[in-house]
Amino acid sequence: MTAPTHTDPHAGLDRAGRQPGGPGSAAPPNRAAWILVMNREIVVRALNKTFLIGLVVSVAIIAALAAFMAWQGSKTESFAVVVTGGDTTATAAVEAGEAIAVAQDTNAELTVLDVADADAARTALTDGDAEAWLHPADDPADGWVLTGQSDPDSTLTRLLTAGLQQEVLESNAAAAGTSVAELTAGSALTTDRVDGSAVDSQTLFFASFALALLFFIGALGSGQMIAGSVVEEKQSRLVEIMATAVPLRHLLAGKILGSSIVALAQNVVFAVVGLVALSFTPTAAILPSLSSSLVWFVLFFAVGFMGMAALYAVAGALASRTEDLQHTTTPMTMAIMGIYFLTFSASGTFATVLSYVPVANIVSMPVRVLSGDALWWEPVVSLLVLVAFTLVAVLVSERAYRGALLQTGGRIGWKRAFAAAS
Amino acid sequence: MISNDSLEVRGLTRTFGELTAVDDVSFTVPPGLLTGFVGGNGAGKTTTMRMIMGVLGPTAGEVRFGGAPLTLADRRTFGYMPEERGLYPKQPVLDQLVYLARLRGISAQVARAEVLDHLDRLGLAGRAKEHVEKLSLGNQQRVQIIAALMGSPRMLVLDEPFSGLDPTAVDGMVDLLAEHTARGVPVLFSSHQLDLVERLCERLVILKSGRVMADGAPAELQAGGTERHRLVVGGDAGWVRGVPGVHAVDVDGNVALLELVDDAAVQRLLASALERGTVQELTPVRPTLAQIYREVTA
């Protein structure tokens, strides 16, 4: 941003006889005008009720979501399983199921409820004293039946299936003169990964969805804000007063920086609240890798949003009235929505390509960093591509903004705006 | 210290496609005078003022101030009130006036003191913390004019500053402007309220279809306009139509409004009238500004 270089023929003259720089003198160019504009953008936005309410509501949603996940993760479900007449196989199966639940870190607890006969078992189910009744099928060849008041709980079914299988295997093996341990020796399979990342695909999907959403809210919300603030000044002719006081590029620079700082601060708040909230949930193990991914995201967003803010400022300048905004901001809105859907659903080669495409890489590259798929230099190169995009966007926008801002009468096209900026 | 820079508009032209909105307009706004800029809707007043303020680029011509081409640095010291009114609707009056002053390089302290002083003088002292949208249109107009007067401007360009103001507010505004002309500041303001312009202006520029139709002091313009005479005789005045060198504009019973080609015609008219009876009145009629305006823009 260069300050104007005109020489002021009246500089230094003090026509009102007051202090130089004070009223009455031909003031030297105000080189700090962009700082004033930036400060105003930040203050006005930060005090805007809609913005503040949106911020508080979003933070509350993030916190509530994390609290729900934490509660979901910590609560233990208790299942009472009915066995009839002290059935030893069934009792052993339930105990095996309980052992499996402990081994797998499943939040379920299985207990045995021994009753006299089938009628007492049914009564226990009907009265809600037990969740299910484990008993042999009428025909022993059909194995076992788990009866519930309605469909038995899926976790319970899974644990009992495994427990029963283990128990029956043990007895069958014993009958055959061997043991399960002997039969399954050497068949264990464990997984390992070279990148050492602890992030599974489900978490990755959730994280990419969250990043895409952060991008969507930040870019769209702050973008609309900058376009609105530009057209407000244009519609009220305030910009004509300001244009006689400061070079228009100072106005643009102040607006881009001000709204970028607000958008960035908003995303940092969301990210920090999200990370803190996450640390209380069972997924806390992914925090280290998620944090580094978030740092990349914030960095990418900071750079990329400046370019988008510049384009949004042009969208505001192309409009003549607030009602025109919907039309002039459509290309930006479509692009942001497209990026939002593409980035959180992309995978494989497409995701790799997206992680280098400017603006989409704000989301895609941090996701690849999180998945452990990106080499160390990849985010750096991608960031440089984004820096180049932002530079071009700002330069192009500066010209179109100057050309369109002082034109009145209806919506203005990019072409006319460009031609008008000489 | 008194400034004595004039603003000169030279051959200013602006076309929008086929339309020539401002066509080779030249005039001077002398220091220390209120210059009225008059013309109908679409005459090109606003377009000319926007070109003076550099908000709109001219197709041809230039604007000079103090003998040199106008620069951005000059314009920063001008006070400008654009055609359409509007400030930030949701920002307090004081805050945004200080902001606009600071953009022009005035320090926050000086700006604040000056804004409060002006608010006080225009009867808005108690409204400094109110949002602009809460003010009446007349009060918004006052806030807007304060924005133009900040920092002792060296030139004032005001587009319809009086529209929508009640007579008391107009007087207050006129007093305020008089302080600036007393400092030697040239003031150009547009208006379509001719009575007001006639009362206030020491100088007048009349625009029609983008061209300057008349330019000068109101007295000069009135002297240059077609002089008329009013004749009141004892009997019916219908006979005046037959007198050579006399053009009857209007005859109503014994009263006639006449245009006379020269002084000889006055004598001939008077002789004829005395032949026919008594003469109660024969007086020259000075045209009002409204008549001149109608004449030059006809």
Automatic annotation (TrEMBL), chain A:
Pfam families: ABC2_membrane_3. Keywords: Membrane, Transmembrane, Transmembrane helix. Residues 49-396 form the ABC-2 type transporter transmembrane domain. It comes from Isoptericola luteus. Its main location: membrane. Residues 1-26 are annotated as: Disordered. It comes from the Bacteria. It is a multi-pass membrane protein. InterPro entries: ABC2_TM. It is found in: Membrane. The chain crosses the membrane at residues 50-71, 204-231, 252-281, 293-314, 335-356, 376-396. This is ABC transporter permease. Residues 7-17 have a biased composition (Basic and acidic residues).
From TrEMBL, chain B:
It comes from the Bacteria. InterPro entries: AAA+_ATPase (IPR003593), ABC_transporter-like_ATP-bd (IPR003439), ABC_transporter-like_CS (IPR017871), DrrA1/2-like_C (IPR025302), P-loop_NTPase (IPR027417). The keyword Transport applies. It holds the Pfam family DrrA1-3_C. One of its GO terms (molecular function) is ATP binding. Keywords: ATP-binding, Nucleotide-binding, Transport. Residues 7-234 form the ABC transporter domain. The keyword Nucleotide-binding applies. Belongs to the ABC transporter superfamily. This is ATP-binding cassette domain-containing protein. It comes from Isoptericola luteus. The lineage of its organism: Bacteria, Bacillati, Actinomycetota, Actinomycetes, Micrococcales.
